[in-house]
Every structure is written in C-alpha cells, then in structure tokens.
Amino acid sequence: MYQTMKRMLLLAAVALPMMVAAQTYQSEVWSPDNGDGTYTNPVINADYSDPDVCVGASGEDYYLTASSFQCTPGLPILHSKDLVNWELVGYALKNLYEGDCKLLEHFSTVQHGNGVWAPSIRYHAGQYYIYWGDPDHGVYMVKTKNGDPAGEWEQPVCVIKGQGYIDTTPLWDEDGRCYLVNGWANSRSKYASVLTVRELSADGTKPIGQPVIVFDGNGTENRTCEGPKFYKRDGWYWIMCPAGGVPEGFQLAMRSKSPYGPYEHKIVLQQGKTNINGPHQGGWVHTKYGEDWFLHFQDKEAYGRVVHLNPVDWSTGWPVMGKKGEPVATYKKPKASSTVVVNPVESDEFNSTTIGKQWQWQANYDEKFGVPTAFGTMRIFTHKMSENSNNLFLVPNMLLQKTPADEFTATTKVRFTSKADGQMAGIIMMGLDYSALVVKRVGKEFQLLRLTCKQADKGKAQEEELIATLKPTAEDKIDYKPGIHEDIYLMLRVALPNKDKLKNKGGYEGKPQVTFAYSMDGKTYRQAGSPFQMRQGKWIGAKFGYVCVEDNAKADRGWLDADWMRITK
Predict the structure, then answer these.
(1) Please, are residues 189 and 164 in contact by the beta-carbon 8 Å criterion?
(2) Do the bridges between strand 383-384 and strand 543-550 make them parallel or antiparallel, or are there none, so unpaired?
(3) Quick check: 287 and 334 in contact, CB under 8 A?
(4) What residues are paired with 195 via a beta bridge?
C-alpha cells in the first residue's frame, strides 16, 4: 500500500511539473534567519568551501558557487534574495571534464582533493561565468547557455593548460579588456604565497599577456596568500584575499590604480576577540540598495568550511569588514525585496525521477552507480571492489551529502537486495576516517556490521564489528537468479558531547561524535556499536549517505533501494 502511494505521488510529480510552484525547503536543524530582521552566522552551516558570490542580472538575485573538488555533479549553484536565505538550485558541471575524454576517464576513479578548487562566479555581457583552477590540469571556465545559472551550462573551456594554477578570478574592465588573477599551489608548483595577474582575450577564453607577480607574501605575516578575488571600484583595482593560513589567518584588501600594481594592502577582517577563527576567502557584493557585504568561510574541521556573512564599511576608503574588522555572530539582515525563509535541501523522499540536488557521487557518474526508480526509491547498485581492497576510501558510487548542522539525526528506510555472498550496503559517515552501518549477506542470512576505518586515506584496513544476525525479510520465489532481501531502518546521529565547553582560542574545537542505530519496525531503535569521532575528508568536511559494495567480480550486482532519508534534530 505504501509503495502504491509513493508511485502515485511520483506520477503526479512527473505529470504536473509546471502546475504547482515548488515549495521552498526549510531545515529542521539549521536556519540563519532569526525571523526578527536579524541573522545568525553561519548563513550556510554546511561545507561550501571557498565560496564566491555575484549579483545577478536583476540586481535582486545573488548566486554563490564553491569548491567541489572531485565530487559530481560539481560547482554547486546557490541562489538567494537576501544573502541570508540560500537555496541549492543546480550545478554548473555534470562530470569532470566531459569535453576531454582523457580527463573524463581520469576522474572516473576517486581523486580525493583534486579537481575543482576555489571557483569565482561573475555576470558579464548577459551570461554567468565560473572560473576555477584545477591544480593538476590548468585554468578552466564554464558559462551559462541561456543566462540562467539554475539552467544548463556549456562544456568547460581550458583557458590555460598547466600545473599549479589555483584560485582564479576574472575582471572585465570598462574598456572591455579582461584580466585574470590567480594563486599558486605549492604542492604542484613548489612555490606559493604570490599572486599573479595577466591579461586574457576579451572573451576570457585564452591568455594574451604574460603573468606579473603583483603581491608577494613570502617571509611575512601574509604567507599563504591565496584565494584572490578581483574587483574595480571608483577607479581603483582591488584584490581581496586571505593570508596567514586557513584556521588562523585573516582577510586582506589591496588596491592599485593599475591591474598590475603595485598594490598597497591592509588587514580588513580578522578573528580579534571573537570566537570565529580564521575568517577566510570569499566574495564581496555591492547591492542595489547601496549596501556592501562579504561572504566567506570559517574552517570547522570535521564539518568542513561553512559560510559566514559580514557587513562591509567603505567610509575610510578601505573595505572594513564585520564590526570594526572583526566578524559578527549576529547582525541585521541586508535590505531585500524578499523575506522568504529557505535553506539548502537535506531530506529526500526519493519521489522524483531525478537525483536530489543535495546528493553527490565520489567520482564521475556512471549509470551503474545507481538511478532513481519509478517506485519512489533511489536504487544504488553494488560497486565491484577489487579483492585486495581493505577499505572503502576509493569507492566511487557512494551517494553522499554535506553535514547540515553541528547536531542532527539522519534516518533512512531501505531495502537491500542481495544476489550473492559478500554483498553489503548501508549508511556511512565518510572522511579520512569513516564508519558505516551495513547489512552483509552471509549464506542465507544477513549480518548487521559496523565498519570503521581510521586513516583510510593511508590505506589502513577497516575493522568489522558484528551487531546482529538477521533473517531475510523476503526471498524471491523464482528459480532464476533469486535474491534475498532485508528491509531495515538505519540511523546516524551527529552530536557534540562537550559543546558547552568549546571556547578555545580558535573558536572551534569540536570533536563531533557519530552514533549509529537500527530498527526493524521504524519505531524501536537499538544502538549499533560505540560512538565514532567524525573526521574531515581531503579539503572537505565529512559527508554522509549511502554505500553499496561487493568484492565478487562475477556475481550479478545487488542493490540498495532507499525509500527516504529524513534529517531531523
């Protein structure tokens, strides 16, 4: 009966997509809008690392993108009417990089921490552009097909081929000339802490000038200067960038009458006496209401890099951010035409024929990873691991999303269908360390296992803990390749056991713990194993979602059908 109702809802959603306006999503676990004309930081309490923002064509819309590294779809696009309430509306990249067969294949395997670094988004000549540096392959650009950031984007263009280029931002000057600023990745170029500017063709697709070092932070407090954003204001060229390191650094502004410098600089935002550590790179916007704001990230370790909003005061001729150069925790909202409360989507009933926007794969998508069904479920097939794999770090078909708050509960109803011994599936909190709760077929039964691995990135073997032995809840009656099934509810809970004591010098010393539980009826849950200390991934926060694997190369694939995932307090 329940599946029939889900099918009816799904058919209605497919048949009548334009008749009913989509409802805005409101999170149960984090919303920055206080409902009284003020907001509380972070405005996005999720890992949108290295955010950049631009004002849309109407002047009433703002669009934000962020680093996505190897995850696909990539280059998330978020939309806001007031810089406080943000909605995830799409992605600029489907796979990395679909126009290049060699790189498309390269990113079909998991490349933790590689790929899309620190993008910038700009509106120019009727189109939206995003530039980013891939430290192994060069500078890339992608633009909209029809001027709609929530719609289709063109194939990416390689603007500059090479290694070491990161943190790229274009600037189209009043005379139509285009300049590009970028930082350098020491891990590839073996030098860093310098910013370079060069001229591009007017369409921004190729370099026509040589790079010039315009700022050098080597040997000074401005070491690790990176993440530059390029602007023009009142005849001055401005570069805004962080320096001093990620967790302990600060934000610089620098200005010159020439795009090639020399630039004078000042610190315009730093932690000071607040408990908001390392206010790091982001983007400045000037609104149609005459206000100025700066969106940037704060590094929260296992949770990743979350997005803060600070006011900007230009009265001294310099962009002093926050409250006298220190970040704000709570502040009055920007002037705006809309006051609708909306948050990036988290929960999913899997009633759509497309994958929810909150979900990303660990590598370029292959249809054998999984697909939505017509039955109101998301099907994820078992990934064929090599027999000598000792952990899950390089599994590409994990379907994961970002953590949405410091504390939350994720509960899912699933059916696991197994065709052969050793196939397993369940939920996971994934990072450099990970832990999962899975059901694994052993003979004619299932084992409920906790899988935990510390230093997975170093190739350490995972440990297994037997929680329970389960009889199948259903079995195929046919003789041809029958499967056995397990219907089960799985839960993970993220909590900060010592949250009242977290007032260290850096503003964040959280050691979030994950506990797992299971239920056979969706009502009574039993804890499954001991708490696990969550840990970030490579340049990203920990992510949670589904895992489905096996090590039998010859067997027919099993699969996990996820009925729903609900995020609650």
Answers:
(1) yes
(2) parallel
(3) yes
(4) 215
Instruction: Give the helix/strand (H/E) hosting 546.
Output: strand 543-550
Q: Tell me whether the omega of the peptide bond preceding residue 32 falls within 30 degrees of 0, making it cis.
A: no
Q: Up-side HSE of residue 338: CA atoms within 13 Å toward CB?
A: 15
Confidence at residue 388, expressed as pLDDT on a 0 to 100 scale: 84
Cα 95 to Cα 74, 108, 543: the distances in Å are 7, 9, 19
DSSP class of 107: T
- pLDDT at residue number 15: 45
Which tens digit of pLDDT belongs to each residue from 497-522? 876 554 543 444 568 999 999 999 99
Closest CA to 287 of 249, 335, 333: 335
Secondary structure (DSSP) of 43-94: SB-S---S-EEEE-TTSS-EEEE---BT-BSEEEEEEESSSSSEEEEEEEES
For the chain, residues with pLDDT lower than 70 are 1-22, 499-510
CA distance 115 to 96: 8
Tokens 């899975």 correspond to 438
> What is the rounded distance in angstroms from the CA atom of residue 50 to the CA atom of residue 429?
22
pLDDT at residue 64, rounded to an integer: 98
Whole-number Å distance between alpha carbons of 493 and 516: 6
Which segments within 419-481 are labelled E, that is strand?
Answer: 424-430, 434-442, 445-453, 463-470, 474-475
**Distance, CA of 369 to CA of 557 (rounded, Å):** 11
Query: Do the bridges between strand 282-286 and strand 292-299 make them parallel or antiparallel, or are there none, so unpaired?
Result: antiparallel
**Token pair 């929260």 is at which residue?**
300
Residue 503: Cβ-neighbour burial (10 angstroms; 0-12, 13-18, 19+): exposed
Which residue type occupies 432?
A: L
Strand partners, 77: 90
Q: Can you name the residues that pair with 52 across neighbouring β-strands?
A: 65
Cross-strand partners of 286: 292
At 154-206, the pLDDT tens digits run 999 999 999 999 999 999 999 999 999 999 999 999 999 999 999 999 999 99
User: What is the torsion angle, in degrees rounded to the nearest 10, for the CA atoms of residue 334, residue 337, residue 343 and residue 344?
Assistant: -100
Tokens of 503: 């007032």
Find out whether 269 and 291 touch, Cβ atoms under 8 Å: no
Question: CA-CA distance, 247 to 270, in Å (whole number)?
Answer: 11
DSSP letter for each residue of 152-184? -BPPPEEEEESSSEEEEEEEE-TTS-EEEEEEE
